[in-house]
Amino acid sequence: MIKNNQHKYSISAMCKVLQLPRSTYYYEAKEKVSDDKVTSAIIDIFQASRQNYGTRKIKVELKKRGHTVSRRKIGRIMKEQGLVSSYTVAQFKPHTKSCNESEQKNKLNREFNQKEEMIAIVSDLTYVRVHQKWHYICVFVDLFNREIVGFSTGPNKDALLVYRALSSIKVDLHKIQLFHTDRGNEFKNTLIDDALKTFNIQRSLSMKGCPYDNAVAEATFKIIKTEFIKRTHFDSLEDLTRELHDYVNWFNHIRIHGTLGYVSPVDYKLEHLNKVV
User: Fold this and answer.
1) How crowded is residue 64: how many other Cβ atoms within 10 Å of its Cβ?
2) What pTM does this model have?
3) How far is Cα 22 from Cα 162, in angstroms, rounded to an integer?
4) DSSP for 6-72?
5) Distances (CA, A) of 226 to 52, 83, 90, 92, 276
6) DSSP for 208-263?
7) Around Cβ 154, how many Cβ atoms within 10 Å?
8) How many C-beta neighbours within 10 Å does residue 203 have?
9) How many other C-beta atoms lie within 10 A of the C-beta of residue 70?
10) Strand ranges (DSSP E) for 91-201?
């Protein structure tokens, strides 16, 4: 009422009539402006995250903007504004993969935190609906900074899909020491064996029926499915490839990762290089 009538009467007079301390009015007004700024910032951060960030990551991004806000308050504001993270959508179980019976050991041994880039990479693949037909995505992830360093798309779940993803990696493949995957037949075959032999890359395979041995690749695909696949419609393979390229660029350069201290993979790598220099 005071705000709506301050063009007619002085704030001091209205506070006196209402028996309201002026300090209380100014405090409440300041809090209202502050809440409006926080709400605006939350909406902006949420949309910039492609509607993926929840309260934890929004809290980190708010702090970068100078706002210290509890996750409970962020959650309340998100609810009031109808902001629903893609992670609230129920997850679906993946199809069972065919398995090879190779004697190859798990050389990675769940050493997921590597201290140098491109020393150990992991890979996995998943399916996606494209114009009422199944297509597939394969990605390669650097264990140093969780960056997607290579990927491919295609209509078939085969060795060629994996080979093209390996070929898309832009650094010298001789630098890679270890390549870890699950026991899908797409990864253990003559085509991939020859490629690894050419660049002197050692192979590592998960134990049969143990997804925890390839946890980083599994977690990366959970993110991709939630944030990208289930939120996008693809009319063609070209459409899928183009949209995936855009998502991977956002994933590597902008998306903050909790395991990296809430910075992007590329920023994490740059920070490491600066420390070395």
Assistant:
1) 10
2) 0.73
3) 69
4) TTTS-HHHHHHHTT--HHHHHHHHHHHHHHHHHHHHHHHHHHHTTS---HHHHHHHHHHTT----HH
5) 8, 16, 9, 10, 35
6) TT-GGGGHHHHHHHHHHHHHTGGG---SSHHHHHHHHHHHHHHHHHT--BGGGTSB
7) 19
8) 19
9) 10
10) 120-130, 133-142, 147-154, 178-181
pLDDT in tens, 215-258: 999 999 999 999 999 888 999 999 999 999 999 999 999 999 99
Token pair belonging to 69: 């806000």
- Burial environment of residue 158 by CB neighbours within 10 A (0 to 12, 13 to 18, 19 or more): middle
Tokens 């078939």 sit on residue: 156
Question: Tokens at residue 244, please?
Answer: 């995936």
Tokens 């699950």: give the residue: 182
Under a CB-based contact definition with an 8 Å cutoff, are residues 37 and 67 in contact? yes
- Tokens standing for residue 116: 């140098």
What is the C-alpha to C-alpha distance for residues 99 and 183, in angstroms, rounded to an integer?
Answer: 5
